[in-house]
Amino acid sequence: MQDENKASIYWQDLIKLKDEVDSKLDSFITAIFDDRLKLITQTVEQAIFFYNNFLEKQKQYQQETPEQSQKEKAWIEQRRELEQLRSSIETIINPVAF
């Protein structure tokens, strides 16, 4: 009977050791997965930030393009008007000789 008690104690110790190893192994594996998940999350967040930034800049460029186009058209029109004015002034100053 005493041998059975010793065997039972050894068996209980073995089960306790197995449970401790399982617990530590679970903690270790969970920590690895948590770390990898954190890295993946950071990478995805950076990619989303980059893409959002890219889209924002693209939107700004699309908005600037019509403004720049309007400014360029106004500049061309003003230059044409100045050319007409210069031509008119030259005609007044230098009348055509007959």
How would you describe this structure to a colleague?
94% of the residues lie in helices and 0% in strands. The mean pLDDT is 88. The chain has 98 residues and is an all-alpha fold. The chain is built from one helix and no strands. The chain is rod-shaped, with a radius of gyration of 42 Å. It has one helix at residues 2-93. It has one domain (1-92).
Architecture blueprint of SSEs:
Blueprint: H1 2-93
Rough outline: rod-shaped
Which blocks of ≥5 consecutive residues have pLDDT under 50?
A: none
Proportion in helices:
over 70%
* Elements, N to C (H/E): H
- DSSP helix count? 1
Number of strands: 0
- Supply the helix-strand structural class: mainly alpha
Largest β-sheet summary: none
Q: Report, as a whole number of angstroms, the end-to-end distance.
A: 145 Å
As for the number of domains, it is 1
- Radius of gyration over all CA atoms, rounded: 42 Å
Beta strand %: under 5%
Rounded average pLDDT: 88
Q: Can you give me a brief rundown of this structure?
A:
This protein has 98 residues and is mostly helical.
Annotation keywords:
98 residues; rod-shaped; 94% helix; mainly alpha; single chain; 1 helix
